[in-house]
Amino acid sequence: MSAHKTLSAITNRIIERSKPTRETYLGHMRAAASGSPKRGALGCANLAHGFAACGPADKAALAADIVPNVGIITAYNDMLSAHQPFETYPALIKQAAHEAGGVAQVAGGVPAMCDGVTQGFAGMELSLFSRDVIAMATAVGLSHDMFDAAIYLGVCDKIVPGLVIGALSFGHLPAVFVPAGPMTSGLSNDEKAKTRQLYAEGKVGRAELLESESKSYHGPGTCTFYGTANSNQMLMEIMGLHIPGASFINPGTPLRDALTKEATKRALAITACGNHYTPVGEMLDERAFVNGVVGLNATGGSTNHTIHLIAMAAAAGIKLTWQDISDISDLVPLLARVYPNGLADVNHFHAAGGMGFMIRELLDAGLLHEDVRTVWGEGLRDYTIEPKLGKNGQVVRDAAPIISGDAKILAKADQGFQPNGGIKVLSGNIGNAIIKISAVKADRHIIEAPAKVFHDQEDMQAAFKAGTLTGDFIAVVRYQGPKANGMPELHRLMTVLGILQDRGQRVALVTDGRLSGASGKVPSAIHVTPEALDGGLIGRIEDGDIIRLDAQAGTLDVLVAADVLQQRSSNAPDLSANQFGMGRELFTAFRNIAGRADLGASVF
């Protein structure tokens, strides 16, 4: 089915806007391509270094330039539950490569930090910048020019976007992304959230809170709520970087291993050495990124991707904007209710029909570009499947179910939970911002209230404990942008504001910082651009100023006369505490050159 005319129009304007930069990018990538193994251009001493540690058979194969070599870029560490399963993947990938007549080598490792561990602490100020470090580390790993394709092992928040950016810097190589899958379901997200609120109110202690959290985050695999990590996996599948059905199979299962081996064989099949050459720089075109934005909105995905998708697209020479994301949101219905947009987790989503069901529904409604290239071949229709394990241990793919396994979790395209995806751009005299309203009740879409101004989340939490956050108000938490302190997530504020909202207060948040992909029921204007340290008007708001946040009209204004605002100074706080400790001194250059949030908050 052809794409909806509005979706096609949005795609065409992105193509036109991107022509100069996209053509330059493609020119560079095509110049780097080669129809024979890349290592053939290396000198003998260089090549000898490249396979010195290999076994005799691999040495012979690599020396003869007759087989493709796959480079593995891994984000393995065994502190991250989502990445711990990757420990065994290189051996599995090498075995699968040998079975297919190829070779695989670990090309390099990239750092992988957990926002869940650093949330609310100094380490979180490195989180956003870790994306660009990962991209650079990916480039270092592939710079040896030994490889004909690459397999990327990554799952969580900044890791996958960083790997994509790095992969696109080697866009002449095919790229296959391999996930580890979500952990099995534990304590429900709703119960976990209730315990957090009770702890914040002092009604339960740390022991009870830790017990609750441990029952929720309890084993290997991705956290099961629908935050940035699981949004990443959805994106990799709907953009064609996963093999079909790979995203949400639990780790440590025979099907998970079978999918990993199959991904390896596919990576070998799509190198320039064969007949199905699929360079990632050409594969990820404007249509693929539009498909990613559609998926983000249809699932109520992470607002972090309003930053990451723009940075990823820019790495391919594509100019994606917040307005594109918002306009696609207006077109795409919300088809999934997964926490925080519902009570289910990603395992429930997968059991209800998962990615195959959703992709088919969107394709049939004309809300995806079907005629895209993927690592599996031509066309997205191949992804409308449900993966299973065959009797011989191979992956078999059945057609995705016609009926949702649970209509409260996964809906058909003409029966969406709401008519739009819920991600909107807000614009006004404060600047531009992003809001996600898929979990915000309709009577909270417009909030007009006096400002309470804070310069960090700790100050706001202290005010909550002191009992001074009374009445209706809009919390303004500023100097939290990329230039100020690396733009940490402010997820802890959601518990405080959620409690106050449940008490009957009308509250909202306005910040130049980020919120987790788990942001939910409180209206939140986030990623305010320009940020306070970059001269943004958010730095001139004072306590008591009336702010109007209107998610229906798409506006965000402080109701103070323009001449009064211009006469105010920003009164920037002392930010020296953000400059040192926990490695922050190493990122001074990043803070100085970081771009605006609406341009991807990138240092490139």
TrEMBL record:
Pathway named in the protein's UniProt entry: Carbohydrate metabolism; Entner-Doudoroff pathway
EC nos: 4.2.1.12
One Pfam match: ILVD_EDD_N
Stretches assigned to the Dihydroxy-acid/6-phosphogluconate dehydratase N-terminal domain: 68-382
Catalyzed reactions per annotation: 6-phospho-D-gluconate = 2-dehydro-3-deoxy-6-phospho-D-gluconate + H2O
Gene Ontology molecular function, alphabetical: 4 iron, 4 sulfur cluster binding; metal ion binding; phosphogluconate dehydratase activity
InterPro entries per UniProt: 6-phosphgluc_deHydtase (IPR004786), Dihydro-acid_dehy_C (IPR042096), DiOHA_6PGluconate_deHydtase_CS (IPR020558), ILV_EDD_C (IPR056740), ILV_EDD_N (IPR000581), IlvD/EDD_N (IPR037237)
Gene3D superfamilies assigned: IlvD/EDD C-terminal domain-like
Keyword annotations of the record: 4Fe-4S, Carbohydrate metabolism, Gluconate utilization, Iron, Iron-sulfur, Lyase, Metal-binding
Entry-linked SUPFAM superfamilies: IlvD/EDD N-terminal domain-like, LeuD/IlvD-like
GO cellular component terms, A-Z: cytosol
Bound cofactor: record note: Binds 1 [4Fe-4S] cluster.
Binding site for [4Fe-4S] cluster: C156, C223
Domain annotation Dihydroxy-acid/6-phosphogluconate dehydratase C-terminal: ranges: 409-601
Cofactor: [4Fe-4S] cluster
Described purpose of this protein according to its UniProt entry: Catalyzes the dehydration of 6-phospho-D-gluconate to 2-dehydro-3-deoxy-6-phospho-D-gluconate.
Family: Belongs to the IlvD/Edd family.
Name of protein: Phosphogluconate dehydratase
Native species: Paenochrobactrum gallinarii
Protein encoded by which gene: edd
